[in-house]
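Sample A.
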Amino acid sequence: MAQARGSAIIAVVTVLLLLMHCNIGSATTFKVGDDGGWVFGVQNWPQGKTFKCGDILEFNYDPQRHNVIIVDQEGHDSCKPASDAKKFQTGKDQIVLNHGKNFFICGVPTHCSDHGMKLEINVE
């Protein structure tokens, strides 16, 4: 019983530290691709932008043609998501950025590899 309570306290403290670290209250929402949205050739869109932990990426696209998959660096570089990768397909997806590198691809065949529908976002 005491061990379970100790684990719960550690979990709560960890969540609080993450919330404080990300400063979610002052998050900025970025529209991926600006007015063009999540489309072919978007991989250079992050250049010149500064992203912070807790900022939100808004992916706007036609869900009949595209999707968004959160991947690791290997998935980004190979354009192949892991079998358990988180997939979004509403056409108006909002994803909160985590500290460090965040990677996204379009999972439709050839969209990532041949048409540049992938992003690497470096978060301060």
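Sample B, a different protein:
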Amino acid sequence: MTCADVRKIVGTSCVNYVTGKEAHASPTCCAAVHDLQARTPTTAMRRLVCNCLKTEATRIKNIQDQLLAALPGQCAVSLSFRLSVHIDCASIP
């Protein structure tokens, strides 16, 4: 998992949902979120993704933190941490 992978997930596949342009996450977005969950089995990987996500979020105009946080639920994915631009990545288990 790299920051480029995270960019693809949030910055491309899910950008319309997390910016409020779409009411629901698309199937493509949800497939990317499922892939993210499957590829982050360790604390180190989850923290890496978190840091990448925070960096990518600063590049997305009009990102809505509440929609980012709702993304796993929209896609029926259980993550061990909350998606948020404000999260302390070091606190992720």
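Observation for Sample B: The two ends are 17 Å apart (CA to CA).
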